[in-house]
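[audit] Reproducing an earlier prediction to check determinism. Same input, same settings, fresh worker. If the tokens differ from the archived copy the diff job will pick it up downstream; this log only records the rerun itself.
[audit] input (102 residues):
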Amino acid sequence: MRIIYLALAVWGAVHPMYYFVSWFQTDGLNLGLMVAAWHANAASSGLVWDLTIAATALTVWILYEVSQTRKYGHLISIFATFGIGVSCGLPLYLYLRSQPKN
């Protein structure tokens, strides 16, 4: 399963980044315009809120587990979640937390 999680994390980083980079090449680094596009209609707004809530739930889970395990390196998953997306952050965290016990 670890290899599957890692592969999904890589896919979840590369595939969305293709679209973000395409956006920035076309429209520049105008984040306000990007946010406006995210809320262009009710369907896209629903997806934005769905992903925002999922990212928040994942962050709470990661913070709770890190507070219990003291595996501070796992916090990188939060940066991946908000810097790239849940599609990268969640499988990355599953990969990290599934490492063999020492």
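[audit] rerun output stored. Observation attached for the diff report: The chain is about 80% helix and 0% strand.
[audit] end
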